[in-house]
Amino acid sequence: MPLAQTSPDPNPDQLCIDTIRTLAMDAVQKADSGHPGAPMALAPVIFTLWQSFLRFDPADSHWPDRDRFVLSNGHASMVLYAMLFLAGVRNADQAPLGIDDIKAFHTLGSRCPGHPEHGVTPGVETTTGPLGQAALTASAWPWPHAGRRHATTGRATPSSTTTSMPSAATAT
Q1: What is the pLDDT of residue 149?
Q2: Any long-range contacts for 99-107 (C-beta under 8 Å, 24+ apart)?
Q3: 6: how many CB neighbours lie within 10 A of its CB?
Q4: What does DSSP assign to residue 52?
Q5: Average pLDDT in the 149-161 region?
Q6: Which of 11, 56, 61, 166 falls 20 to 30 Å from 81 in CA-CA distance?
Q7: Is the pLDDT of residue 130 over 50?
Q8: Which residues, in sequence order, are bridge partners of residue 163?
Q9: CB of 77 within 8 A of CB of 116?
């Protein structure tokens, strides 16, 4: 019986989703702490949001007119860290996450702590915990005035939005 052959032209979207899942499960396994199920289940959701809907500049995570992504289920933090890593999100005072940051998930002093922490990881908009308080934070976020232009790209946007990812239980 011949061996199964892989497609010479794999679907790049599926490859990204599978990479998010693999990074999440490997990091949780290495840390021997965390929850791999929610990040694996939410990988297609976060990829679709970041790829097709959110307006952001990976080179400037503080762009005033960016859309904000707030993870409401802190237990699924590895899905956010994997997406930030793949997107190369950074800011002026922090380099983007590297593979060593992902490998150090949930360890003391890590840039990828057990729950997202603002100021520790570039692209994390607010500190969130395991019980979904981020939904309230995201709904009350103060927004910048419309019509601002990004300093580098010159892009203007009519408004900004917040996306709050629900817990895995409500996302499925």
Answers
A1: 53
A2: 102/23, 102/27, 103/27, 103/30, 105/27, 105/28, 105/30, 105/31, 105/34, 105/78, 105/81, 106/27, 106/28, 106/31, 106/33, 106/34, 107/31
A3: 7
A4: I
A5: 51
A6: 11
A7: yes
A8: 69
A9: yes
**pLDDT digits 0-9 by tens, 61-77:** 988 888 888 888 888 99
Buried b or exposed e, range 33-60, using 16+ CB within 10 angstroms: ebbbebbbbbbbbbbebbeeebebbbeb
| Residues listed for the chain | 172
Extract the tokens encoding 159.
């408004």
Q: Whose CA is closest to 40, among 163, 168, 130, 129?
A: 168
| Contact between 117 and 84 (Cβ < 8 Å) | no
What pLDDT, on the 0 to 100 scale, is given for residue 13? 94
Angle between helices 77-87 and 37-48 (to 10 degrees): 40
Separation of alpha carbons 72 and 6, rounded Å: 37
Provide the pLDDT for residue 129. 74
User: What residue type is 87 in one-letter code?
Assistant: A
55, 157 contact by CB (below 8 A): yes
Residue type, 51: Q
